[in-house]
Amino acid sequence: MTNEPSFSIYFEDQHGFLDTASIGLLPKTAANSLHEAVDHWACGTARWFDDWLGLTDSARDLFAKMVHADAHLVATGPSTSVMVALIADALPPGSRVLTPAIEFTSNLFPYLVQAERGIEVISVDENQLIEAIDSSISLVSVSAVQSANGHVTDLDAIKARASVTGTMIAVDATQAAGWLPLDMNGLDAIVCSGYKWLLSPRGTAYLALSERLSAMIRPLYANWYGGEVIADSFYGAPLRLSTSNRRLDPSPAWLSWVGAAQSLKLLDQIGIEAIYRHDVALATHFLTLIDQPVPSRPSAIVSLELSKPIDPTALPFVVSVRGGRLRVSFHLYNTMDDVELAAKELKEIILPPN
């Protein structure tokens, strides 16, 4: 770690913020752009149509590049659940959806509310997910990285199994996109909220689709922004939606996308491979310092069982608790100083590995 890159220069000084799994920090460029936009808004000099509206497409294009998707097949919206609801609505009556039992509810509840249409959700232990995929399963819906424990899903194994059974795959990348390299090839959907590892304001989310799933989805949120020519779509019939998946977008929250466009520009500038190496190196060194095993699929999120209950707000750094376990997460603004501080404070209260 002697050649540790100094990505922290892109951020304001942070003091032991190890909780990107809850919320990411804005880069300086994003914060400055938001301040400037709010100032123009307050002074009545904002030109929302010319200056803000196109930034949603800028972020869309950069997200598509990040996950190796076709930008024309990427929809945007305010949150993961809003995006997943489009997929759930598109499934034919009687479809069976397979998920891990530990799955975050924004990637689960939208399917469960479709029970009245005969949509059945089957939840299994995350370690049994792959073997549970068979020809009766219409869709596997799984997080690329689990929010509760940081486990990195073996997406290649799921792709291989689903290619035999004809099962579609939808991946929630909210805890992955921004640090873990992802590839849309072989998947039917990647959905992601932007306010964590994509370092964006809340109110930004993405849905990249395969051709086959895109053809099934109805534009439930059809509005002026989804029009083929936005400036000509403000009033009156007929329905005239874009041929791209902008047809699926709810009307964007402008200021959220002002920040998102800058944040994704920075991530693209640095490169996901470099970010992966940085984040995983910090997490791996942290595990080594506290005498914990490094998983076979390394993660930027570390989940720890403690020997006694603690108040995380009393610690000299910021972490979170999920499922009764301490969750520590490492991203671009973190340094070896953060790793060593956390290791020193936590080593004596962590249960040894089984």
TrEMBL record:
Residue span(s) of domain Aminotransferase class V: 57-291
Record bears the keyword Secreted: no
One Gene Ontology term of the molecular function aspect: cysteine desulfurase activity
Keywords from the UniProt entry: Transferase
Documented EC number(s): 2.8.1.7
SUPFAM superfamilies: PLP-dependent transferases
Keyword Cell division: no
Coiled coil: none
InterPro entries referenced in this protein's UniProt entry, alphabetically: Aminotrans_V_dom, PyrdxlP-dep_Trfase, PyrdxlP-dep_Trfase_major, PyrdxlP-dep_Trfase_small
The protein's name: Putative cysteine desulfurase
Provenance organism: Ferrimicrobium acidiphilum DSM 19497
This protein's encoding gene: csd2
